[in-house]
Specification:
40% of the residues lie in helices and 20% in strands. By secondary structure, the chain is α/β, with parallel strands linked by helices. About 2% of the residues have low confidence. Strand 1, helix 1 and strand 2 form a beta-alpha-beta unit. It has two domains: 115 residues, Rossmann fold (3-Layer(aba) Sandwich); 97 residues, Arc Repressor Mutant, subunit A, CATH 1.10.10. 35% of the residues are buried. Strands 2-1-3-4-5 form a five-stranded parallel beta sheet, sandwiched between helices. A four-stranded antiparallel beta sheet has the order 6-7-8-9, with helices on one face. A two-stranded antiparallel ribbon has the order 10-11. It has eight helices and eleven strands. Helix 2 runs parallel beside helix 3.
């Protein structure tokens, strides 16, 4: 795979690049957030290893820029900030995985391979439409009544999952597995917080299609998408 490594510390960057190239990957280095954004715009990267603390802007800001511009490239965030709160913040920003420093190089390589495998298959790249709610996975864009909906990667994936299962009950466990790739139920409210932000974005455009079934899950109602 072609990997973008975003790290300003030359020693750590060298270790990451050496470890990834040792297992057969090709790498490109960016030492600032601005360089990372430019590299993503140029394309050609299969995944990104992104440091959270950079000299110009944070890794969180890089992810925000990338997702707003429609880049769906898988991103693994690295950081010395490793508390549960920090990890959740990184994942909710749109990162696909989060690894605290110091880390084992073999684990890093395995996690990079894992997030690359999670990319949606080509069969799921077709545009999704329910009423006047539209979503295009290939460009990472969504609209309601021709107005663009601004979503981060996870909120976009949540909406896509609900649209693919319109008028069906989707449980929290199904969302954790389908959107986050978790086969277990974490003790955090990661589903609820992202669902709340998704609803807020939709409500801002006059769209309220998601119904909560207390204790059961969520249903996206097709009759509310007009």
């Amino acid at each position: 795979m072609q990997l973008l490594v975003v790290e300003d510390d030359p020693i750590i960057a060298g270790q990451i690049i050496a470890g990834l190239e040792r297992v057969g990957h090709r790498t490109r280095l960016a030492t600032t957030g601005s360089e990372a954004i430019l590299a993503l715009r140029e394309g050609g990267c299969d995944a990104v290893v992104l440091d959270r603390m950079l000299p110009d802007i944070t890794g969180l800001s890089v992810i925000d820029h990338a997702r707003r511009e429609g880049h769906a490239t898988p991103i693994l965030m690295l950081s010395a900030l490793g508390s549960v709160k920090d990890r959740i913040e990184g994942l909710e920003s749109g990162a696909d995985d989060y690894l605290a420093k110091p880390f084992d190089m073999d684990e890093l390589a395995a996690r990079v391979a894992s997030i690359a495998r999670r990319r949606a298959p080509r069969a799921e790249s077709a545009r999704l439409e329910v009423g006047r709610l539209h979503l295009d996975p290939s460009s990472h864009q969504a609209w309601f009544r021709d107005a663009s909906i601004v979503l981060n990667r996870k909120q976009f994936s949540l909406l896509a999952h609900l649209l693919r299962n319109v008028d069906r009950l989707i449980t929290r466990s199904m969302l954790l597995e389908g959107v986050w790739g978790y086969s277990f139920a974490p003790t955090t409210n990661i589903v609820e917080s992202n669902m709340s932000r998704l609803r807020t974005a939709l409500l801002g455009l006059g769209c309220d299609p998601i119904e909560t079934q207390r204790g059961a899950g969520y249903i996206l109602r097709s009759e509310r998408c007009v």
